[in-house]
User: Fold this.
Amino acid sequence: MIVIERRVHEVWEYIADPKNDPQWCDKARSVEQVEGDGPGLGARYAVMHRPIPMRRAKELAVTIEEFTPPSHMRIREEDEDGVFDVTYELEPAGDGTRLIQRDRIDWRIPRFQQPLACRLVSRDVANQFAALKRRLEAG
Assistant:
């Protein structure tokens, strides 16, 4: 959870479009929309991302599963490591926006690697939210 000192509709417009991800997510290298016209229910994207430094970038298939502007979006992200069900919830917080991310991960990696992977994902989300806050609050 993070509070961003921007109105809900401003935060929504930015995060609802996965093509903005490379600007605030250092793991995302490129985003190409492969289905749909702009962000919305059923839109699909091919994302090149590098989840682990020093390793090659790989494709992440992203589909918008739920889309309720300006307060709720659920996306499905899938790569060789797992299926990630990511939900964003936005609500007013004074003059700003409270942004909550919930993740459910169905890992495809060996069970013994999953605790470390979960810690790394949690760290990455915190870093991404900090970058998003800096970017949106800077104007």
In short: Strands lie at 2-4, 28-35, 44-49, 58-68, 72-79, 82-93, 96-107. The longest strand covers residues 82-93.
